[in-house]
TrEMBL record:
Domain LysR substrate-binding: 4-151
Residue spans crossing the bilayer: none
Coiled coil residues, start to end: none
Domain of life from the UniProt record: Bacteria
Record-given protein name: Helix-turn-helix, Fis-type
Family: Belongs to the LysR transcriptional regulatory family.
Length: 154
């Protein structure tokens, strides 16, 4: 099983496959209407879009810039359990969304989305292959593990 984010279940072994950097993004129209936040604290006065994934606290955003660290409790204007819906909402100008770099890089390249607070890093949500805790794994599980590690790290 492939899992994105931190793992809290000890019944599985997490094999790291790739980093998953996340960015804050909004549409140019949203930023034109509501202004561009210049500090994390200014997010409190913006419409934020949250995505309920796994068992994470989706309203807690962790940002860092050099030695400065900031944790914010977000009051979501919109909440979804579907990342593609949340991205569409952001593209439609409904708020600022926190998404994986690989998910929004095409929308940023096309100008549909713009990075917000780009000089701040957000907590990563690593991509892991979850394998059962067993001494002997099947040949198929081992082959899949090797394929994914080679493909995603190479």
């Amino acid at each position: 099983m492939v899992h994105i984010g931190n793992l809290n279940d000890s019944l599985w072994i997490a094999r790291p496959l790739a980093q998953n950097h996340r960015w804050l993004c909004a549409s140019p129209a949203y930023l034109e209407q509501h202004g561009v936040p210049s500090t994390p604290d200014e997010l409190a006065s913006h419409r934020c879009i949250c995505i309920r994934e796994n068992d994470e606290d989706v309203t807690l955003w962790h940002l860092s810039k050099g030695h400065a660290k900031k944790t914010l409790r977000i009051e979501p204007a919109l909440l979804s359990n579907d990342g593609s819906v949340a991205r569409r909402w952001a593209e439609q100008g409904l708020g600022i969304v926190l998404r994986s770099q690989w998910d929004v890089s095409d929308a940023i390249a096309s100008g549909n989305l713009v990075r917000v607070l780009a000089d701040w890093q957000l907590a990563s949500a690593p991509i892991n292959l979850l394998v059962p805790v067993r001494k002997h794994r099947s040949a198929r599980v081992q082959a899949l593990t090797e394929f994914l590690e080679t493909t995603l790290k190479g």
